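Service request form, structural biology core

Requester: graduate student, group of Dr. S.
Request type: structure prediction, single chain
Budget code: on file
Notes: please return the result as structure tokens.

Sequence provided:
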Amino acid sequence: MAGDSSQSKESTVSTVDCSSIDSGIALVNSYISKKVNLSHCKAIVISEELASEGISEYIYTCVNNLELRPDCNIIISRCRASDYLENSKPTLESVSARYYEFILNSSEYTGYTEDVTLSDFYSDMLSSTSQAHAILGSINSDSTHSNHSDMPPYDIEGSYEAGETPIKSETGLENMGIAVFNNDKLVGELTGMESLSHLIIVDEFESATISVPNPYDINSVLNLYMTSIKPPEISVKLINGTPYIKCSIELNGSILSLDKNLNYSELNTLKNIEQYTNSYLEQSISSYLYKTSKEYKSDIDNFGKYVIYNYLTWNDWIESDWLYNYQNAFFSIDVNTTIENGQLYTKI
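Core staff response, request fulfilled:
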């Protein structure tokens, strides 16, 4: 309809009970006036409930479909997949496919999720060095909002999972966090800050705004615009068969929020902020890594690629069972942040 900007009026969601994806598509084709074509599919949405049971059958079917492009995204919905689609209300895009494509690009400037494609998920699911993960999505409404007021102010923004953030908008969908898999089954979910930690480790972090403790006022926070300086230096050693993983990370930060009582041109002020930022990020990243190893027992950071060269043959590597041994790992995280004092002041 020319001139009508309401995409929800132009979109149609059809559901069908079937034994397989292909039979379902055949049933839909017998109902609608056009043949279903998946060549422009931008996202595959799978419910949290189904993902917990195992989705290898569906992933194999999608990969085997010649129409589906390998760069379409995998989204695990915390609600029913049909509800997720029905609540899609693109307000800034006139084409649904473009809306799904652009909404998932937020990882480039927020760090709160990751752009995970069908090919990424499939290769990780079959890999011997890593486990699969996917985008975490949900419906955002007043009833799904989570109250995290009991947390420190610098932890609140990154503590949400999809659907929990206190945002009021016509757009009903929210993608925040990462769905963690062990083999083909969903085993856990990560918050926004944990997702940012993951992006830093796998060198996919581009930029984000984060809140860190204010070293000069315990009741306030500092907002920093963070960017990556270079890829993290990662080493994995086996000590008596137990993985010891060391990560050295270098980031750059620019102060966004200013305190009138602080002199940001003083070197000591910036050094204190750097130390607090380093400590906060080291704690956040370490907590994320221990959560994936001890609680979820899933190496979604592909640490296995750093240790596989220690084995002379493929059989030796397979027998080592890295994906099982990862739950025994312990970590050492070192973050070095260079803080700049913002554009309102001369850089030191």
